[in-house]
């Protein structure tokens, strides 16, 4: 299954003022496209071009760093675009998700503080995650393109803390970007969709 660059699920100005048109143009059209192009080339060379992106991520982890970097970032970004929407974020979560956050993470406010802290304290490039592991929600952070798939978990929400995700709009103020992401961008309906799929 060749990697393909998905179209954004909204126009380039939909997330303003929290994420600019310029950021989306560079991040989606240039950075994500490069992961797709490089990933396809390296997957073909490794004889893994027929596998799904999830399988390529898992098979290349720890064995083929170049392929893993591009495949994992492709997987991460396929979902990253869908994890955001116009007029998103905030604490009005679908009931099922709210119940899980209450029971597993100590409620919305604690989730928000811990998720932002994970993103803020990830040194250098990486991601902060909300995942399902062993039937429960967990918050984690990973360096570079790593994601919870390679640690036996199913990611249901992730935020990119590579500088190209926020530097145009927030300069070095990563915590402000993370607050804007949680308060104003998260597409909770897509998080619920992934939560339900991971909970089957």
From TrEMBL:
InterPro entries, alphabetized: Mn/Fe_SOD, Mn/Fe_SOD_BS, Mn/Fe_SOD_C, Mn/Fe_SOD_N, Mn/Fe_SOD_N_sf, SOD_C_sf
Domain Manganese/iron superoxide dismutase C-terminal: 95-192
Pfam family, one: Sod_Fe_N
A molecular function (GO) term: superoxide dismutase activity
Binding site for Mn(2+): 27, 77, 160, 164
Segments forming domain Manganese/iron superoxide dismutase N-terminal: 3-84
Keyword Metal-binding in record: yes
Tagged with keyword Oxidoreductase: yes
Record PROSITE patterns: SOD_MN (PS00088)
Superkingdom in the source lineage: Bacteria
UniProt keyword terms in alphabetical order: Metal-binding, Oxidoreductase
Record-listed E.C. numbers: 1.15.1.1
Record PANTHER family: SUPEROXIDE DISMUTASE, SUPEROXIDE DISMUTASE [FE] 2, CHLOROPLASTIC
Job of this protein: Destroys radicals which are normally produced within the cells and which are toxic to biological systems.
Entry similarity comment: Belongs to the iron/manganese superoxide dismutase family.
Annotated protein name in UniProt: Superoxide dismutase
């Amino acid at each position: 299954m060749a990697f393909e660059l998905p179209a954004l699920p909204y126009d380039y100005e939909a997330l303003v003022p929290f994420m600019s048109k310029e950021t989306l143009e560079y991040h989606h059209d240039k950075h994500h496209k490069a992961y797709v192009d490089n990933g396809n080339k390296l997957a073909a060379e490794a004889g893994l071009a027929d596998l799904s992106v999830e399988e390529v991520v898992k098979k290349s982890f720890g064995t083929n760093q170049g392929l893993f970097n591009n495949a994992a970032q492709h997987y991460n970004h396929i979902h990253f675009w869908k994890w955001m929407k116009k007029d998103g974020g905030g604490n009005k979560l679908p009931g099922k998700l709210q119940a899980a956050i209450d029971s597993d993470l100590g409620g919305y406010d604690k989730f928000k503080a811990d998720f932002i802290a994970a993103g803020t304290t990830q040194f250098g490039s990486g991601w902060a995650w909300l995942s399902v592991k062993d039937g429960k929600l967990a918050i984690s952070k990973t360096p570079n393109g790593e994601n919870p798939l390679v640690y036996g978990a199913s990611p249901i929400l992730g935020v990119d803390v590579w500088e190209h995700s926020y530097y145009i709009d927030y300069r070095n103020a990563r915590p402000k970007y993370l607050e804007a992401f949680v308060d104003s961008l998260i597409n909770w309906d897509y998080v619920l969709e992934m939560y339900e799929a991971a909970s089957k």
